[in-house]
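Q: I have 225 residues here and want to know how they pack in 3D. Can you give me a structure?
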Amino acid sequence: MDFNDTTEKLGAHEVAAWLRRHPTFLQQFPDLALTLVVPRDNGPTASLASYQLDILREKNRELTKRLHELFGNAQENERLAVRTHQLTLALLKQASAADTLRAMAAALAEDFHGDLVRIVGFRAVDGLADVEWFQHLPEDSPRLDGFRDLLAAGEPICGRLHPDKTALLYGARADDVQSSALLVLPGVGLVAIGSRDPNRFFPGMGTLFLRMMGEALAAGLQRFA
């Protein structure tokens, strides 16, 4: 059997495997790279060089898209950092526990665009008896039994809450809430930010700024304990 017979019997898979092991092969035969043709999904065939150029352009478009997304995320994170810092300063300037909670509720509604804000306090707070957004429930209240695991974990959560939890937090407005961010503050209470948009808050989204806001509120209220 001569060499030509052997090469003629090579299958496409063997050729492809050999080329993968020798990616610089076409550098030695540039004329071959120019004459090879690659089928297109639509339209005529194209040279290998043209095909590679198309791939590079597509990769460049994808990288540019990802860069824009990263830049947008960085800008949004910067805005959230500024708002969280401003909220912290505002909470620490208040003269009473009631004013601190009012400042928190107002900031979540206005600066963080919460459709509904609700706060459950484990301690009674003078001056908030008639507001819709605050309710006092002792930490050992049976009504909070559904929140025991969340209180033990002490971590913010996002997404759709169980209907029982939604009903306790939002009361008569529960049907308006399609997703929530819940700040769990052990020893202090619960802060719920409700949205009519089911995709506004979702499991797996970042909770760093929520945690920082919760810690700021706890620190602000600690001054009046």
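Q: Anything worth noting?
A: The radius of gyration is 30 Å. The longest strand covers residues 179-185.
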